[in-house]
Amino acid sequence: MDWDQFDLNPKVIAALKKADIKSIKEILNLSGADLQRLMKLSSADIQCLLKTVSLTLRRNSMLTALQLYQDKDHLTSQQQKLSLGCSVLDALLKGGIPLVGITELAGESSAGKTQIGLQLCLCVQYPYKYGGLESGAVYICTEDVFPSKRLQQLIDQQHKLRADVPAEIIQKIKFGNGIFVEHAADLETFHNCITNRISLLLARGMVRLVVIDSIAALFRCEFGASDSVTKARYLQTFGAQLHSLSMRFRTPIMCINQVTDAVSESEAAQCGCSAVDNRVSPALGITWANQLLMRLMVNRLSPPEQSSALVSHHSGSVRTLRVVFAPHLPPSFCYYTVKLEGVKGIK
Fold first, then answer.
1. Going residue by residue through the chain (347 aa), what tens digit of pLDDT does each one get?
2. Domain 3-58, classified CATH 1.10.150, yes or no
3. What are the residue ranges of CATH 3.40.50.300 in the chain?
4. In the chain, which ranges are continuous DSSP H helix?
5. What is the pTM of this model?
């Protein structure tokens, strides 16, 4: 730490160097009396030192209501989003995925959850001007092998999906080099992954997106029906760790989740969905739901549903993306399809 950069009395700076104090953390971990004995300074000098280093930590961290309203200099993350690479999907989410907080994407098998996760891993690498974050992504697989062939298909077809981006910009981006794949089949490996390896990648600025596919797989085999309390504690712990990473590095966390049968309306209501329209609800229950900023659900329409909807003229399977809850969005939905070039919304 270069103490000469601080607005401190030269006597205090000399005492810091003589006491071999090298960081703000060391200062704040010591009491005022300990600092006085160690640095041989007066109580007034120590109070001035503590006030100066505290103000350094607090600088730019507090915003007024007017600054939040005006979003001056783009200091807040609330107005900044990560694009999904499709104008229809972005319109549904008012710009895309929030940068701070955990977003859950739940749905049945073959609904297109992994496809959206892969598409986000490519979108995050685009310049800010085109809805990206100019950084890479971490994709954590907890059960299936990473779909590398499908990823390569999406990379090859980016010029078709992202017609809004000039071809020379797409050609410059080395998409494959910006995606880091981790495999975590158990809770211990997952904990080590998010606390060590992912933290390191985020601290180095190499990634700005974390995708977990899927969060439910980690808990499905680890806990029985009698282990609900232990399971809830793990969910709360992991939720807090993911929130901390998201807040520190302004990084969106996308957790793909599976669904379970909702046997009653009350059970479905606890998870923020309706058992009348669809007899499934996201896995992991209310404890996990409380960790989320936003919950999205995807569903694949059956042929009778597709023919009765306004999308019957579209070839292939039609799916829905639904906002279940979010602090900034009303419950709403849109239709989309999964094509060779990626996920595309239907207007």
1. 778 777 788 888 889 889 888 888 888 888 888 899 999 999 988 998 888 888 776 655 566 677 666 655 444 444 679 999 999 999 999 999 999 999 999 999 888 999 999 999 999 999 999 999 999 999 999 988 999 999 999 999 999 999 999 999 999 999 999 999 999 988 899 999 998 899 999 988 899 999 999 898 888 777 776 778 888 898 999 999 999 999 988 999 999 999 988 666 655 555 555 444 567 889 888 999 999 999 999 998 876 666 655 555 566 689 999 999 999 999 999 999 999 999 999 98
2. yes
3. 69-346
4. 10-18, 24-28, 32-39, 43-58, 65-70, 87-92, 113-123, 148-156, 158-161, 167-172, 187-192, 198-203, 217-220, 228-249, 265-270, 285-289, 303-308
5. 0.75
Instruction: Give the CATH superfamily of 69-346.
Output: P-loop containing nucleotide triphosphate hydrolases (3.40.50.300)
Question: How many of the other CB atoms lie within 10 Å of CB of 25?
Answer: 11
